[in-house]
Amino acid sequence: MQSHRHPPVIYPLHAGERNAGGMLDAASQARADARPQSMTFQNREQRPALASVFPEIKAAIDENSKAFDEYRSTSQAIQADLVDRIETIEAKGANPRNPGAGGDAEAREHKARFEAWLRKPSDPRTISALGEFQDGLAKKDMTIGSDPNGGFAVPQQIAADIERLELKLSPVRRLVKIVQAGTSDFHHIVSVGGTESGWSSETGTRSATATPQLRDVAPTQGELYAYPTVSNWSLDDVFFDLSAFLTEEIATEFAFQEGLAVISGNGSNRPTGMLNTTPVLTADGASPLRAQDAYQYVNSDADVDDSPAPIGISANALIDLVYTVNSAYRSNANWIMNSATAGAIRKLKTADGRYIWGDSLIVGQPASLLGYPVEIMEQMPDIGANAFPVGFGDFRRGYLLMDRVGLRITRDEVTTPGLTKFYVRRREGGRPLNNDAVKFLRTIQ
């Protein structure tokens, strides 16, 4: 291999720098002596000097790296704290009964003692510490209580995380009216009209006010539970995030079961669903009134002008459904349907070839159908003969969901050797509230 050497740097001399004998004059010679002869020679001369300062340079770089790592750690801690505060504010807004769902020291201490009991339920110290703490909370908040034989109340910090994940998995709690109750004897009164009203002059006669027609809505109740199981080896692993595991498992099961009960629950130890009583054709205000739990439906007869009309659902029938709902309820109305039905309706077009479905341009916002938002509920029935696959209306005024005292949990490490089961439950009930506020579409094919 040939070695490549840098050629010496040659600086041209100006004319007149040499004398008549070809020799450099004194000034030119001084300038030539001051110029570097070659780069190779120059680097060789500087190498000892660089070697002497290299440790200082390395130490400075290491010090800067250490300072940057400390800055990054501090920034990440600040960011995590800000995220925690934001989520706390959001959870508190979603659940007014929950004061400071995860941000204050008391909530964090409650969660820490609760997690210690989850891992060591037989330790008298963890039982005593959690029991005493929850007894103190019970004096401040009637929704908190402790009973080692019947389980402990789930800390609001974990309960808020479960509710937040439920909202992502199911739209039920975003749509319906939710109330908190401290007793099973809960009733909600709804006026269905009948109050006398009119106009009169200052001295004119007035007709006696008639007694309004009131409807007593008493939600049917039951205990919604989840039974997640964890291996004992996982519990012994200090890096296993038990709270996150329980939150995800419980929220997934609660979201599915709650959505199913709100749609088709039979009212036996569970909520009474919207479709438990078959919808009827009877219009609002007809005499006699519809049954308390019965909504009105609109037939979906496919029109020949609609193209295409998937399995009996037509664009005109959807328009009829919208305007069957009283205008007082349309301002806050939503559609509900499952994914299969949404896929079929999304293909519907108007006579001039425009799709009636509008996709959202904003991430996280629902699509729209005829100008109203669409919520996907997989528990809704599929399109079929005499089915009710589409609902429309103001569900907050049309259905009531009642929550009793918050989540409770009992740990079982005896039933199955090597496994620990967590029995988590919440008492709740539900029932149709105002059956004028929601309508359903019936498919006949």
Structure keywords:
18% strand; 445 residues; hypothetical protein PF0899 fold; eight-stranded mixed sheet; extended; alpha+beta; seven-stranded mixed sheet
Explain briefly what this protein structure is.
The chain has 445 residues and is an alpha+beta fold. The protein is built from 12 helices and 17 strands. Among the domains are: 105-191 and 213-268 and 409-432, no CATH class; 296-401 and 433-443, hypothetical protein PF0899 domain (hypothetical protein PF0899 fold).
Verbal overview:
With about 450 residues, the protein is of the alpha+beta class. Among the domains are: about 170 residues, no CATH class; about 120 residues, hypothetical protein PF0899 fold. About 40% of the residues lie in helices and about 20% in strands. The protein has twelve helices and 17 strands. Strands 1, 2, 3, 6, 7, 14, 15 and 16 form an eight-stranded mixed beta sheet that branches. Strand 15 and strand 16 form a beta hairpin. Helix 2 packs across helix 5, helix 3 runs antiparallel to helix 4 and helix 5 packs across helix 8. It is extended, with a radius of gyration of 37 Å.
Radius of gyration: 37 Å
Percentage of residues in helical conformation = 25-40%
Strand content: 15-25%
Biggest sheet overview: 8 strands, mixed
Mean pLDDT: 75
What general form does the structure show? extended
Uncertain runs are: 96-103, 137-150, 302-310
List how many beta strands DSSP finds.
17
Q: Can you write the helix and strand succession as a string?
A: HHHHEEHHEEEEEHHEHHEHEEEEHEEEE
End-to-end CA span: 86 Å
Structural class by helix and strand composition: alpha+beta
Number of helices: 12
